[in-house]
Design goal:
alpha+beta; 196 residues
Length: 196
């Protein structure tokens, strides 16, 4: 993150701070609203199909769990914003993890809307906000294009050899170290090592 310009780091800080505040203040309200809608609709469904009655206890357990995880992710985002602005590298995976919690939690809570809740899918707002942060930090961070591509495009052909992941793109082989922070560099002699 030190290679990222101070202007982009400022935008990342603003993004992380705004999403952190949303996860602390707004998302719990949206989760509660969604839980109430889901339970009301589930009561109607259970009258005709009693096999769905276990959904009451499952929703009552997992929705507060995702609300708590989102709250913690929001606190993490607010706590790491000064370190993000300083350009410390460890903040990139921490922020990605916090944004991912919001995106995954919102998508999980969206699932009942597919089956029986007919209103606007409120949890998708949480998921969209998490994805906004996730993609925003990836695009605002100053990296080599190939590293950004390795984060954005998971459809490259990956091969694991000796704690490194190798992938091949347009005839060139690249490697990412799995021992800590991801770095991507070009290898010329890997092709013969891997038999390509």
């Amino acid at each position: 993150m030190k290679d990222t310009s101070s202007k982009n780091r400022l935008w990342i800080v603003i993004l992380a701070g705004a999403i952190g505040l949303f996860l602390i203040i707004g998302a719990p309200l949206l989760v509660q609203l969604s839980l109430e809608r889901d339970l009301i609709e589930l009561l109607e469904v259970v009258k005709d199909r009693p096999q769905f009655s276990s959904g009451m206890s499952l929703f009552s357990l997992f929705y507060p769990l995702w609300r708590a995880l989102g709250f913690v992710a929001g606190i993490v985002l607010l706590v790491i914003t000064p370190s993000i602005y300083k350009g410390e590298e460890w903040t990139f995976p921490a922020a990605l993890a916090a944004f991912s919690i919001a995106a995954i939690g919102g998508m999980f809570m969206f699932l009942p809307y597919i089956s029986w809740v007919g209103d606007f899918p409120v949890p998708m707002v949480i998921s969209w906000v998490g994805l906004l942060g996730f993609w925003g930090i990836i695009f605002l961070r100053q990296t080599e294009r190939i590293e950004m591509g390795s984060v954005l495009l998971p459809h490259f052909h990956w091969y694991a050899v000796n704690s490194r992941f190798y992938y091949r793109h347009r005839g060139t082989t690249y490697a990412a170290d799995t021992s800590g922070y991801t770095f991507v560099c070009r290898f010329r002699d890997v092709d013969s090592y891997l038999g390509w």
